[in-house]
Design brief:
heterodimer, B: mainly alpha, 2 domains
Chain lengths: 147, 157
């Protein structure tokens, strides 16, 4: 197995577990308060990461901008998904619809980064998105990375 | 203005859902660009910097809503502490998951493959809900679970 796939599957497993822990949290406190404590955990984790990371000066501005934008985009994505659920959207429809997000990543990566997928990988990407939608039907709400 | 009185406008829930697709979809792209120049740890540090303004905003919202509320009885307070514990654990697991996601990109995974693979995380949630929360799966979810395994096999090719 390629090493990147191992890490991707590890991310999948950890984010999958958060689907349950998030539900256990929002059963007891509001989604906003839950999000706030989620963020505090991210800050705590970053403190731990500082011990092992070797941040250095001279990073390309584009790289720094993209990495910071990543946190903002992911966090705001979680916030807008809460808004969608609170604005009267049926959970099964909202979550299934949002499961389409990797499709946009695939399109952007092909257009902007010039990535090319094999036939098998294209079929896999389509199957993955279809699977995520089917799994989201009446599944516990969960979002990537953030809540 | 109610949803019914906005016939020619996008329903709010649909607007917010589409916004989530765009925000998360672009996240996969910018994470790949960032991973070309920083390791997973620094990426996670900068990610947290990006999350900070939203954290301040949500913190302000929570404190505004809870202002003037009477003190909670003991049982509610205990329930709230448990809710906070699970939220904190969600953050730790989510953050370590982020590190694995960034590492997958750093180690050569294409954004167009890593994003669909990691987006299959509801399969784990569904399996855990089945085993630990004793939730029942519908036929559609069983099909989704099977398709998820097929997708991982195809994407790893």
């Amino acid at each position: 197995m390629q090493i990147w796939l191992g890490f991707a599957i590890l991310a999948l497993i950890l984010w999958g577990i958060t689907g349950v822990t998030q539900k256990l949290s929002t059963n007891r406190i509001s989604s906003e308060r839950s999000f706030l404590w989620f963020c505090w955990a991210m800050v705590a984790l970053s403190g731990a990461v500082l011990v092992v990371a070797r941040p250095h000066w001279g990073l390309a501005p584009l790289v720094v901008t993209c990495a910071i934008a990543g946190g903002a985009l992911n966090g705001m994505g979680a916030w807008t998904s809460f808004r969608a659920l609170e604005s009267g959207g049926k959970a099964s429809i909202v979550i299934s619809l949002i499961s389409l997000y990797p499709l946009l990543t695939v399109v952007l990566a092909v257009i902007i980064l010039g990535e090319r997928l094999t036939g098998m990988q294209t079929a896999g990407a389509v199957a993955a998105i279809a699977a995520a939608i089917l799994l989201s039907l009446e599944a516990p709400p969960a979002n990537p990375g953030v809540l | 203005m109610t949803e019914e009185s906005r016939p020619h406008k996008l329903p709010l829930w649909l607007f917010w859902s589409l916004a989530s697709i765009v925000l998360w979809g672009v996240w996969g792209l910018v994470s790949k660009i960032a991973s070309e120049g920083v390791d997973a740890y620094v990426n996670q540090l900068l990610y947290t910097v990006g999350l900070a303004p939203l954290m301040v905003f949500v913190g302000w919202t929570v404190s505004r809503k809870s202002r003037g509320n009477p003190p909670e009885p003991g049982k509610l307070r205990q329930d709230r502490a448990r809710g906070i514990f699970w939220a904190f654990l969600t953050g730790i697991l989510g953050g370590v998951g982020n590190l694995a996601f960034f590492q997958a990109l750093v180690k050569g995974g294409k954004a167009s493959v890593v994003a669909p693979v990691t987006a299959l995380f509801p399969m784990v949630t569904v399996i855990l809900a089945l085993v630990f929360l004793k939730e029942r799966l519908g036929r559609v979810q069983w099909v989704g679970l099977g398709l998820a395994f097929v997708a991982i096999y195809l994407l790893s090719a």
